Each structure stands twice: as structure tokens, then as C-alpha cells.
Fold these 4 entries.
Entry 1:
Amino acid sequence: MSCFPCSGSSGKAGEDAAALSPSPRPSAAKPAPDRSNSRSSSSVRRGGSIPHGPAKIFTFRELAIATKNFRKDCLLGEGGFGRVYKGHMENGQVIAVKQLDRNGFQGNREFLVEVLMLSLLHHPNLVRLIGYCADGDQRLLVYEYMLLGSLENHLHDRPPDREPLDWNARMRIAVGAAKGLEYLHDKANPPVIYRDFKPSNILLSEDYYPKLSDFGLAKLGPVGENTHVSTRVMGTYGYCAPEYAMTGQLTVKSDVYSFGVVFLELVTGRRAIDHTKPDGESNLVAWVRSTALSYLPSVLV
Ligand SMILES: Nc1ncnc2c1ncn2[C@@H]1O[C@H](COP(=O)(O)OP(=O)(O)OP(=O)(O)O)[C@@H](O)[C@H]1O
Ligand SMILES: [Mg+2]
């Protein structure tokens, strides 16, 4: 699945992320307890996190060596930005290297936003950007390696030899992903709207510990009296909040809608959009609405 642009202009590349402060948002009253950070550092490590340092600048040669020259057997997957390879650094660190496809839909803007956003945003439920490479016309992003791949790989694109996710794992993934969103919406200053919440962007480390990835579409949220930001509609079909798709007015609630869609996928095992299903069932949200309504007593409908 890939992201879709609609019409209108999206502003200057990176201007959003450049305005982002890494400090937590000040609160008028006593700050709410930071539940998302309440895990002990050892349990954070269990999720596969390594302490944050500044993003490292890599040469293309270093990343070519790490991925055995981008060999096919190192390929982890491919998305709208390009291919993702598993690599090994000289110090033994395992990494995931995402190489921009120069003929693809996404480009320099997403690369820049991703580097700026992930250099400033740090949370156990956000994937860690180790560094990047902007050598000549090559653009590569280097992330911590996520052992269990994406939620999409476990929920929908599951190889026959892989067990389905059990209920506890599904709930753990939902809670962790929600904490990642909560950090972006309520702790980052100004708030960040992720805009691309979907199973392929929820990566899993050991124990199905989830981390949000792909910040190329992220946008700074409204500040002060403003209720929304106006922007060209971007996202993935099936996950995009209808009111945002219709008006271009983006709020943090647009992410909450996408979260709801993924939550329905987790509990039903169905895809957000599935054209192999009969009419009336291909759109998960519409199907759940009609099914749920049929269970409600008629006085409530
Ligand atoms: N840090 C990582 N560790 C391990 N695997 C990864 C990592 N990042 C990406 N992958 C794998 O590569 C695949 C492709 O990721 P990518 O983000 O490029 O595309 P996508 O999310 O599938 O599609 P889209 O372009 O619509 O976001 C993922 O589904 C996942 O299996
Ligand atoms: Mg992705």
C-alpha cells in the first residue's frame, strides 16, 4: 500500500520539523504523569531501544558494505520510499537501511522531514533513526533493526508457517502504538500529526513491542487558538479520516481515526480495504458499522 497525494501545496520541505522543539510541552497545571515513559530503562531496552545519540552521517560506501552491496538476500521489504535492507555495522550493530528509489513517489521532502522529525522526537514507541546518508544523489535512512518486522507482516501478509498473533500481543501492540501517538499529540511541542498510521508503519521488536516508523508525512499540529492545519491531503486509502480527506483540515483526531481503523484490523483480523470480500464487506469501517448496528436494539438506532 502506498501513500496518496491529492491537490494543493504542502509548504516548504522541512519547515515543519524545523519548528519542532524537542522539549516536552509546558503545562499550566501540574504536569500529567508521563505514563508513556514510565517504563524502566531496562524494560525500554527489552523493546530493543538503544540510548539516543545524534543522527550519524554515513557515507554510501559504509552502507553498501553493511548491506553486502544491497544484496537481494538482505532485502527486508519495499514501500513507497524505496527498498529496505538489513545490514551489519562493523561494530556488530544490526541496522535497517531504507534507500530512496529515485523513480518513486516520495522524495527529498519526505527524506528531510523524516530526518528532522526523528532527530527531535524520542520515545520508546517511535523507531530510532540511527543516521542517514545524503551522498551525491543517494538518500538513505538508517534505523534500528526491528526483529519482528511490521504489524502488516503478522496480521495480513503472514507466511503459512507463522502463527497468528495471540490476543495479548494484539492488545500490547495497540497500547504501545497508542502511547507513541499520545507522545506525538500531547507531549511533543508543538504537537505532531503523524498522518500515516497503518499496520505497515508499526514495526515490532522482540515480544511484539511496537514502534511507529515513517515520519515523512508528519505535520506540525495546530497551536494557540487554531483548531486545525490546512494542508494537502496525504495518507493511505482506508486509513485517512473522512473529514480530513474532504476538507484538507488536519487535526490530531485524523490520527485517532486511523488508530481506530488499525484497532478494528487487530480485533477482526480483516484488512481496512479488501476487494476480495463481497460487496458491503470490502470497507472494514463500513462493514463494522453495519454489523454493529444490526446488533443494537432498534430503539437505539
Ligand atoms: N527498521 C526496520 N526494521 C526491520 N524491518 C523494517 C524496518 N523498516 C522497514 N522494515 C520492513 O520493510 C518493509 C517496507 O517498509 P517501508 O516503510 O519502506 O514501506 P511500507 O510501510 O510497507 O509502505 P509505505 O511506503 O506505504 O509506508 C516493512 O513492511 C518492514 O517489513
Ligand atoms: Mg512504512
Entry 2:
Amino acid sequence: MLIIIGTKEKTVKTGDFEESCPFCSGKLYIYERKLFFSLFFIPLFPVKHIESFIFCPDCNYKKQLK
Ligand SMILES: [Zn+2]
């Protein structure tokens, strides 16, 4: 039987940001980009945190969080 394992990047929304977008005054959300261990191309659990950022879906403004 062939078992396909690997890693897959996934971006998940983790919450709302308390400030609004500096460009369009829209709502900002906090996202985290993580590397997941995957089995048969299905991400199972996170193995590495890549970055956190805030993102405005209205104007695509993105800013890295420290
Ligand atoms: Zn915006």
C-alpha cells in the first residue's frame, strides 16, 4: 500500500483585529500561515508556524505581525 505523506501550507483566520484598515476603514482580520503535516494531501496538524498577519478582505491590505 502506498502512503503519501508530506507537508502543506495552510492559512487560517484566527480572529478579528481591534483596529480598522488604514486604507478603506474596513474590518481587519488576523491570519496565521502554518505548515501542516499531511497524509494523502490532507493537512492533519501544524508542524511549523510561518507567519502571522492582518488582512483586509476589502482592499487586500496585508501587514505582517511581529
Ligand atoms: Zn482595506
Entry 3:
Amino acid sequence: MANKLKVLNNSVRSLYHYNKKTVKLPYLPQFLWLEPTGQCNLACVVCPNSVLESKENITYMPLGQFKKIVDEASEFIGSAFLFLGGESFLHKDIFKMIRYAEDKGIRPLIHTNATILTDKYIEEIFKSGLDYISFSFDGYTKEQYEKVRVGAKYEKTIENIVKFLKRKKELGVKKPYTVLQTLITDSDTYVPGNELEQKFHTIFDDLPIDEVNIRFPHNWGNTLNNTDQYKPKTLTEETYSPCSYLWVSMSILANGKVVPCCFDFEGECEIGDTNTHSLKEIWNNDKMVEFRQSMVDQTYEKHCGICKGCVYLWHEKTLGIPMGMATVMGQSLMNVIGSGSEKYFKQALKLIQPEFWYTVKQ
Ligand SMILES: C[S@@+](CC[C@H](N)C(=O)[O-])C[C@H]1O[C@@H](n2cnc3c(N)ncnc32)[C@H](O)[C@@H]1O
Ligand code: SF4
Ligand code: SF4
């Protein structure tokens, strides 16, 4: 099991080596995206799943393979998003996966579309040891929601989330830390705290949501290039910084292939393969080292077309720390201070940077 302080120390080292532009790294990653399945029951307009030509290659990771990856990762990884480009609750072994990661000392975190939360699933979630759950609910009216979350039914998803929250309240438990996330797709006319938004949030009055997260959609690197709607803002050359994910994390698709980040649903920019190599080997293999170098040299497009125009290359820094790295550092810190402190930690951060997109609930 990874020593939590060692993971935090590696997060600090990653900032040092990122600033120094080291490309062969003398430490291991601290965070994983580990995808149980890339399959999804929705085709949200904000998500590359809506434009994938074929889902033939999208698979389910066998439990044995998941365990093998977690066994190795548990030596150095502190927490992991158990999703990437699909809906993880579609995997028949998802609760065994969550439990396995948790027992091995990797904090399991999940985002879900909440469409398939049956009573049985809700009970399993509370038993599984899941540390963090974020419900993706894009829209404050039936019309808005169903236009974005194609294939979902507004009333049914709300019913599922409310059922989950009522059960959490009944059980009196703090875990999992619960987030309600909404992507704003009408950004030109959106007014924060508008009447519809307020009315929508009253549905969850007196229910144990820990955080409300209101964000604008990105374009998944260069993946959602079929529409102007999700193009990143015009950004200037001067604000460019290499993608910090490559200094702190690894992303693994359900077929075992390692990709640079969670934007590469189809393995377009494959870095390595966990079927044939260990995570440690892949972390500093030739492709990974060359890719980091290309980030430093700004020639990344040769290595990965998805990066072209990706918001993470121009994202504003937090306390001088690039966005992806700041998120991973926060997770490493949470491992040490305990996820029960997540609320207080985030409240403190929000005081430092009030423009952050989340609101922590009392
Ligand atoms: C790809 S989804 C996978 C997990 C699950 N299927 C879900 O929808 O929550 C992961 C996260 O990406 C978010 N997401 C989807 N499209 C996005 C976009 N264009 N910009 C920012 N986040 C996006 C989803 O809301 C979700 O929180
Ligand atoms: S955002 Fe989530 S639910 Fe929607 S299509 Fe993508 S993976 Fe599926
Ligand atoms: S720049 Fe964007 S697309 Fe490229 S690796 Fe980083 S997050 Fe992924």
C-alpha cells in the first residue's frame, strides 16, 4: 500500500520537476484514471461519445486485469477516478472494483450519469467504500437536461439522485462525499444564480449534497471538433504551459492501453499497454518521455492531435500550480488529512480563489 506521505511528497516533487522541465521523472505518478468500461447508455452532446464512429472496440475491463493494475498501482497511487469515457455503473463488477481499490489503499472516486441507480445499486454504493461520487446533471429544466444528456429522462434521474441522498441521510454517513455537477451549455446567456438554477436546487434542500459544481464544457482537446459550441476561448501564446497531467497521472482505458489523459477515449495517442508492460515501465518509456519533451518544446501536435487547442494548455494556474497538477496535489493532500476534511479544504481554497466553480454546502 502506498505511503500517503510519500504520495504527497511525490506530488510536491512533480511540481519541482515540472517547473524544471524534467522529462524522465525520478518519481512515480500519484493519480490514475482507470476505466472499467468505455460503454455508455447515453450520448451526451457535450461528450465525445456523441461523435464516436464505432463503439466496437470499446470494451469492459475484466476484474482480474483491474486487480492486477491496482496491485501494482497501490505501491504509489493515492487515489483514482474509476471512470474515463463511459458509465462505470454498467460494469457488472463495479462494486468489487471499488472495494478492491479501497482495500488496497487507493481512494476510489466516481462521476456518474445516475441513470441506472436502482435501490440495490444505492445500497451497494454505501457498502463499497466509495469515497466520492459526482452526479452529472446538465440542465435545470427537463428540456435543457434531455437536450444535453441524450437518452436520459429528467424525472427518472432526479428520482434516482434524491433516493440516493435520502438513503445517505437515513444512514447518517459522510461517505461518499457527494457532488452535484452541472455543465452550462448556454454560456452566452447564463446568469449565475438565476431563478431557474435556484428553483432547481430547492429539489435537494435538506439533502446531504456536499458540493455543487457549476462548470462550462470544454471541447475534450480537439475531440469535439464537429461543433463551434465547445471551442475553447481564444487564448494567447504567452499563457501556454505544458500539460501537467503528464507529470502526475496515468490514464488507462478498459482495454488496458495507457493514454496521455482522460480526453483520449479511443486510444488515439497510445503511450503503452498494461497487457504487456508494467505501469512503472510505461511511466518513463520512450513515448512518454518524448511526449513530455514535445510539451516542453510546444511540438505536442506531432505526438497527439487531440492536444491541439486543448484548454489544459492554457488553463489559469492556481497559486502558481497548473490546473491538472493542482487537482492531483489536492487529492494527495486529501489522502493524508482524510476525505472527511474535503469540505473544509475546499472552503479554504475557495477563500483564496473565489472564482472557483464549486460551492461547498454547509
Ligand atoms: C465522460 S464522463 C464519464 C462519467 C459518467 N458517464 C458521467 O457522465 O458522469 C466524466 C465527466 O465528464 C463530464 N463532461 C462531459 N462532457 C464534458 C465537457 N464537454 N466539458 C467538461 N466536462 C464534461 C461529465 O459531466 C462527467 O462529470
Ligand atoms: S458524459 Fe458520461 S453519460 Fe454522457 S455520454 Fe459521456 S460518458 Fe456517457
Ligand atoms: S493537452 Fe489536453 S489532450 Fe493533451 S494530454 Fe493534456 S489534457 Fe490531454
Entry 4:
Amino acid sequence: MNKRKVACSILSFLFSVCILAMGTAAVRGQSANPPPCPRFAAGSIIKAAPDLFSDDGKLYVNLTYRTTIDQNNNTLFCFMQNDGTQSPTLHVHPGDTIIFTLKNALPPPTGAASTFSATKRQEAAAAIANAGKISIASTVPCGDAVQNASSVNVHYHGTNTSPTCHSDEVIHTLINSGTTFQYQLHIPANEPPGLYWYHPHVHGLAEKALQGGASGAIIVQGIGAINPETEGLPERILMVRDNPVPGNPTPGGAVPSWDLSLNYAPVPFPNYPPVIIPMRPGEKQLWRVANASSDSILDLQVQFNGVAQPLRVVGLDGVPTGSQDGTQTGKTIVKHDILLAPAARAEFIVTAPTSSLVNAQLLTLGIDTGPFGDDDPQRPLAQIKVSKTAEEPNLTVQDAGAKKFRMRWESATTCTPSITRTLYFSEVLSDPTNPSSPTNFFITVDGATPVLFDANNPPAIVTQQGACEDWIIQNRTQENHEFHQHQIHFLLLEENGVPVAPDDRQFLDMKQVVFWDGVSPTFPSFKARMSFEGHDIGDFVYHCHILGHEDNGMMAIERVLPNESKNTAKPAGAAPAAPLRAAAKGTPLFTVDTSLGASGAPVPAASGTASQPPAAKTNKK
Ligand SMILES: [Cu+2]
């Protein structure tokens, strides 16, 4: 490969011919490898991802990022192991380090890579660092300098890890075709035990990467010690993903905006053949479910003959429920349905029916996402098949040796907020005179000017390590949005100005804000406590986790200054630097060529620039 690269630079006058040759070679090289991104048959028995366990405080992960086109002409992306398996579940203990090496084996892109050069990135970074009085120049760029259609990086969702280069940094990290990059992710010693996950997070490319299936689970071990009800239970990790509906029928009514899959077995429209989950009669299992879809909102329910069953919830977004009151003991919460925003996780105990005659299903209820939202109709995901000889899951909760400990975020239940910030979701047509023009999405501190996300924007919020703050997040649009905060969890306090029920006062990294009806004098909102305790400083991001919205602007940077700094928390909108470049409505700040034509595979018809997706995918028809 290196020799080919040298040859290419020498023969620059034959540039396009050379790129084509590299693409062809890449395809030939892949043919000797296991086929990328395998999928299971619809209606098949649930399959678990391969499991990797840390040893002596370290977990080595070696993955290759690959792509292919499936029989429905959908582009798949995947994190492959050398043995042909994909998306391993990473099992770690608090305090462990994940050494995550990723090789990007995507074919190189064919077109112009980006209009935003490495030099411009560095100049902009220097200006921001100067304005913010801390140096982040060492993190810019991180990996490759110029984003293109093949770029990837990895976000370790929910983990309370450092947002620095080679850790959980998503603003500047780029791993381009042909590049190998290593992360060393230090899981804090006080990380709550539970379900986290990893996925690509390159702005403009995240939705397609997630729909392609590139995501996997992370389990921080120890739930059995925090909530003894889980100890000894068979354990299943269930990853719900989404993808374009074959044939791209117009969403609406019973037609979903996206199809769903469960552990890589599709559950396609219109018949939704459920995945089979074997259980023994009356058996209890711990189901650890991640909504790893790009855009689809779930509302999970287990029904026996159409009747909702109690789900004993022990963890939300990786944090044991009810565990932060000083007792270091989790408290089980009983729910009959669990709303799961894109990227949210729920861990709950399911009891199988005692008879195989019961029609037992895991399903998602329909979501009213608002007049401009996607179509997320009710549909089954899995059928529980009861038999005395049912095959047991390959995992069992075995944490008897684990100790209880003072978990991260415990102090957020008692800290006194120094400031209340109000932020809001908004969206506008890029061309107000053209209803079919793409939508621009924003998340904005109240009082500031809405700007589309750009990696070189100044921070929208500047705060300080150790700060305790209350944030109110409003939805001023007519579709649901899903707030996600990187690096920290938040304590849910209020919804629409009303304190939440004690069972809902939990630590989350995801929270939905439902759509505004267009007439009410107040906007739907929630209030949460943000505690910037711990070691992590630098540039965090917050965004909507409907990735079609995030890719189109709905993300912003918050800078957490070290606490020895003389800077103090600034009020809303008072970030110390002006935007480096104004974001003109409808003008992409940089353009991304999303064609992957060098693979020789067909380029999906839906490809456009990242800043201008097909309107049908963001606006209901
Ligand atoms: Cu959104």
C-alpha cells in the first residue's frame, strides 16, 4: 500500500487513474478477507456479538473499518475483527484502559476531499485556543487533517473519559482511508457499572455510519454488586440499529422512516418478522438494550398476549438506577414501557412466560415525533420462544467479587448550582421560499445567534472544572429532539417546569424533548443538573442524537477550563470569542464528497453532500 502511495504521488498527472487503481486493488485485497458486514436472516434466533474481556486492567481491541453494499443497495459500515466477526462487546472494569486500534480500510474517496484545508484548521484552532486562554493546539488536528467521505472516528458513548486526542475526542479526530489510529481510553475508577457503546462520530457522516451498522457495546462490569437482584442472571446484550427501508417508500402512517434490526437480524417493513429470543419457562434474564439507531426513537414494551408486562429496570444510560443516594446500592424501578431515545440504554429484568402457548413479544410502541418528525410506528422486535431446553445466553452476571464504591456523579445530587443556562433546539429551511429545501438544525444558548456546528466554532459555553450548573433544554420546533451531553451524565430534575417523579430522577446522558405544538406560550423542556466534577477538561460537545439533525448542524462545543484558571463560569452567550466564520443560512461551512465510487460498488442514489441530505429523511412527507 505504501509503495502504491509513493507511485501515486510521483505520477500525480495520472492522479485520477491512480485513485481508481487503488480502489480496485482495495476491492481485490478485501476479497481475500472475510466478507465485510455480515447480516443474519430476518426471523432468525438472536445472536450475541463476540465478547472481549479485559485482562490485568487492559483490553486490546483491533478493528478494521470496512464497507459494502447489501442486496437492498444500502451501504453498510462495520468494525470487523480479523476472524470475520464484527462489533465485539468490550467488557471492562472501572479503572481499566481500552487500547482500541482502528484501521480504516474503506476505499479512498474519488472526488475532492474537502475545501477546508489542514492549514485553515490549524489557524482556526490557534485563534480559538488564544481566545479561550487555554491551549488545545495539540489536539488539532488529531489523526488526519482533512475530512473526506472515508473519514471515521470513534465516540465511546456515555463513558466519562477525557475529550483529548487518542481518547474520547470527536471534534477533530479523523481517521481516513488507509490510516491506522490508536485510542487509549482510560475508564475512570469510579465509572458506574452498566451498558455504554461505541460508534463513529465524524460530523456530517455520523448518520450514514450508524445506519450502516458500525457500533458495538461496552459493558463496565459490576452491576451485580450494586444491584444484587441482577447477580447470577443470564445476560443478553441487545443492540437495536436502523437502516433505510428497501425501496425507500414514502414514510407516513404504517410506513416507517427507517427499518430496525436487532443484533444484525433485520426486522423489515411491512411484515416485521421478529427475531427469536429463547427462554426457559418462568426464567429471569437481564436484558441490556442499546438504541444504537441513527434516528429512530423506541418505546420498549414486553407484551404477553397483548398485555404489557412489568420490566424491572436496574440501569439507565449506564448508571444503576437509584444508586446515587449515598448507599451505593441500586434500586429497581418497575416500568411497563421504556422510552429509549436514539443512543439511550436501558438494562432491565424480563421474566419469561411459564407456557409456550403465550404470545410473548418485545416491541416498540409508536412514537408521535411531531408534524415534522420521522415516522416511528409500533412494531415487534423479538418473539420470546419458551422451551425447557432453550439455549441460555453466553453471559451471566457474576459480580460477587466486586466491591461497592462511591460512583461518579454522586456529588451532583447535593451540589449547589452556580448558574442556570437555557438552551434550545431550533430549525429552519435553508431556503425559506422552498419547502423542499434542506433543513438547517441548531442548538443554541438562549440569547446567542444560532449557528450550524463547525469544528472551528468557538465554544458556545465556557465553564470550569468542578462547576455545578442547571441547564434547561427547550424544544422550539415541531419535531422531537434528543439531547446528549458528552463526557458527563446529568441528573434529571424537571420536565416542563414540574419536578419529575422520584423514580425518574436519574442520571442520564440522553433526554428527549418532545415537539412544540406551535401555539403554546411555553416550549416543552427539561431541567437537569450538570456537574463538571472529575478530571476531564477541554472541549466537550452536546447535540441532538437524531444523527440526521446532528450531521446538519445541531451540535455545539462547551469548554471546560481547568479549575486553577482564573476564568469563571460565564453567563449564557458570553463565550469569550466571536465565531470565526459566520454561518450563513443554507451555506455549507465545508463540503464533503460522500461518494465511495472507487470500490467499484454502486454509489447509493441518496448520496449528496453531507450538508444537504435528501429532505425526505429529515422532514416527514
Ligand atoms: Cu434532533
